[in-house]
Every structure is written in structure tokens, then in C-alpha cells.
Write a structure and sequence with these properties.
globular, alpha/beta, single chain, Transcription Regulator spoIIAA, 145 residues, 6-stranded mixed β-sheet, 19% strand, 5 helices
Length: 145
């Protein structure tokens, strides 16, 4: 599990699970996340992103599209943010295949990724842990400045 000020992620039972705050990811955090995805891509069954509104900038979106180019992997993005949904549209123009779900429909996002049984509560706990860890890291960074 890796956490920073704007995002946190882990690979759990073959799923890349990521949480983003409302802030845009820093370049360093984004690049580290992409390197981890790339190094484990062949083992992944799907990607779950939960965001409070933060998402990649134009350069980061291009990097993401390049990473996924020619690869098929289900990606579910859970957000209530109109900005984040706009980013998803831009990513679809770059060829990235994903599906958006509201926070209220997180269960449908997990179903889309074929997550079921005992994995359901475990993935939910993972998301909450990532959210708490990123929130703590963000607060510590704010106190350090």
C-alpha cells in the first residue's frame, strides 16, 4: 500500500485499487503509481479508482492512455464529481476504456469488475483504509509547510 498527499493505491487480490482526493495528483505520485501498474499489469484483473474529484492533468492523461494502449482491462471509476467525469470523457477520447459509477453505486462498480463474495467487504475496507491514510498524509504535509 502506498499513500501520498493526493492519492493512495494498492494491489489487492489482483485488483489495482486507488483513492484520489479532490486535488490533482502530483507528478511524482502519478509517475510512481503508473510504474507500479506497468510492472504488474500482466497480473491485474481490473482497476478500481475512487476519487473525491481529483484526476490526472493533460500530460498525466496521455501517460495513462499510453500505458493502457492495446491492453484490455476493466476500469471502474467511482465519483460524484462532474470534473472527474469530464476527465473520464477526455480519457475515452484517448482510447482508454472505463466506466463511471456514482459513490452510491460502488456496489455496481465492484460487480462490473466481477468482485464478489468475501472480496466485497475486503475491497471496501481497502478503499476506506486508503482514504484514511491519504487524508492523514495530506494533513501531515499541510502541517509541515
Amino acid at each position: 500500500m502506498r499513500t501520498g498527499r493526493t492519492l493512495g493505491y494498492t494491489i489487492f487480490e489482483g485488483y489495482f485499487v486507488s483513492y484520489h482526493t479532490a486535488a490533482r495528483p502530483t507528478d511524482d505520485e502519478w509517475e510512481e503509481q503508473l510504474k507500479d501498474i506497468a510492472s504488474r499489469f500482466h497480473d491485474l484483473r481490473g482497476v478500481l479508482v475512487v476519487t473525491d474529484g481529483g484526476g490526472p492533468n493533460v500530460v498525466q492523461r496521455r501517460q495513462l492512455a499510453e500505458l493502457f494502449e492495446g491492453r484490455v482491462l476493466p476500469v471502474a471509476v467511482v465519483t460524484d464529481s462532474a470534473v472527474a467525469r469530464g476527465i473520464l470523457v477526455a480519457l475515452s477520447w484517448l482510447g482508454l476504456k472505463q466506466r463511471a459509477f456514482s459513490q452510491a453505486d460502488v456496489g455496481k462498480a465492484l460487480e462490473f469488475l466481477c468482485i464478489s463474495g468475501p472480496l466485497l467487504p475486503a475491497i471496501t475496507r481497502t478503499i476506506e483504509r486508503l482514504r484514511a491514510d491519504v487524508t492523514d498524509a495530506s494533513k501531515r504535509a499541510g502541517n509541515d509547510s
